[in-house]
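Worked Example 4.2. Consider the chain below.
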Amino acid sequence: MRTNEFSQAIGEPLEEYSPPLPPTSTSIQGNFCTLEKISLKHFDDLYRNVYGPESSDAYWTYLPLEKFSDQKDFKNYFSTLISAKDPYFFAIIDTRNGEAVGCFALMRINIESSSIEVGFVMYSERLKRTRIATEAQFLLARYVFEELRYRRFEWKCDSLNAPSRKAALRLGFKYEGTFRQALVYKNRNRDTSWFSIIDKEWPELKVRFQNWLSESNFDEQGNQISPLNDTTSISSRVT
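Applying the procedure from the previous section yields the following structure tokens:
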């Protein structure tokens, strides 16, 4: 443990540290999906697949807004997503048909502290529990750590949102604790659970994502052979 001249414990020095960059990319290409900076061309797809009246009511329980009943109201909201720099929104595009099937955002962008959060995760029913959903999160994390060079990547959710908590852990985020009475939304209390990935954890997680996404990890019916959080798959399939 390092100490200063007063015999006080201090953190390790960051010898080659440089501040990260703000997100500016307009397209991040993967095998199954592409992340595109949100724009008007995604309006119809996202209204139909995610934000509009056909989405399940239960989907909106833990979200701070409600689904939109008409395109006019959604267009006003959508224009704020397009112009925002924090949150910085990406549409998730299915490469098979070019359709936007979900979106998410990089937010709480703290250049000084080198931390950034993924939030506003909005998946259509077609996107949930698919390779596209996992690859989209992989592409975003790789962008955060390798291109933007952040030290800390965060995930936060209502502590009662079991699917979101499960997704965070599956993707490699580590639970850090719960902030009690952190927010009020929809006229009710929210305790917020915090999760994170830090930069030194990313190389191993990257290999895990690549192994899971490889064709050798899926059978002829498209079912996974090894789960994403099966770390034993790393040593057995890496070349």
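The first strand starts at residue 27 and ends at 29. Strands lie at 27-29, 33-37, 88-94, 99-110, 115-123, 152-158, 174-185, 188-198. Compare this with Example 4.1 before moving on.
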